[in-house]
Amino acid sequence: MAQKEAGHRVLIVGNRCYRCGYEWKPDQIEVPPKVCPKCKSPYWDKPRKK
Fold first, then answer.
1. Which of 20, 36, 37, 47 is most exposed, with the fewest beta carbons within 10 Å of its own?
2. Taking residues 17-42, what's their average pLDDT?
Protein backbone atom coordinates (compact mmCIF):
# COMPACT_ATOMS: atom_id res chain seq x y z
CA MET A 1 0.00 0.00 0.00
CA ALA A 2 1.43 3.39 -1.00
CA GLN A 3 1.58 6.15 1.57
CA LYS A 4 0.67 9.68 0.68
CA GLU A 5 3.02 12.24 2.16
CA ALA A 6 1.48 15.36 3.60
CA GLY A 7 2.87 18.64 2.32
CA HIS A 8 3.44 21.67 4.48
CA ARG A 9 2.53 25.23 3.69
CA VAL A 10 5.10 27.82 4.69
CA LEU A 11 4.39 31.54 4.95
CA ILE A 12 7.41 33.74 4.32
CA VAL A 13 7.01 37.36 5.32
CA GLY A 14 8.68 39.76 2.94
CA ASN A 15 8.63 43.26 1.51
CA ARG A 16 8.18 44.59 -2.02
CA CYS A 17 9.24 48.02 -3.23
CA TYR A 18 6.47 49.90 -5.08
CA ARG A 19 9.12 51.93 -6.92
CA CYS A 20 11.45 49.30 -8.41
CA GLY A 21 9.58 46.04 -7.69
CA TYR A 22 12.42 44.50 -5.65
CA GLU A 23 11.39 41.81 -3.13
CA TRP A 24 13.37 40.94 -0.01
CA LYS A 25 13.11 39.27 3.38
CA PRO A 26 13.48 41.75 6.25
CA ASP A 27 16.23 41.31 8.83
CA GLN A 28 13.86 42.33 11.62
CA ILE A 29 10.14 41.67 11.18
CA GLU A 30 9.08 44.07 13.95
CA VAL A 31 10.88 47.10 12.47
CA PRO A 32 9.90 48.20 8.95
CA PRO A 33 12.83 49.18 6.72
CA LYS A 34 13.43 52.89 6.11
CA VAL A 35 14.56 52.50 2.48
CA CYS A 36 14.52 49.89 -0.28
CA PRO A 37 17.85 48.01 -0.26
CA LYS A 38 18.07 48.13 -4.09
CA CYS A 39 16.92 51.60 -5.19
CA LYS A 40 17.30 53.31 -1.78
CA SER A 41 13.89 54.97 -2.08
CA PRO A 42 12.34 56.02 1.25
CA TYR A 43 8.90 55.67 -0.43
CA TRP A 44 9.25 51.93 -1.09
CA ASP A 45 5.98 51.19 0.77
CA LYS A 46 3.85 53.87 -0.90
CA PRO A 47 2.38 53.46 -4.42
CA ARG A 48 3.12 56.14 -6.98
CA LYS A 49 0.41 58.75 -7.44
CA LYS A 50 -0.69 59.51 -10.99
1. 47
2. 94
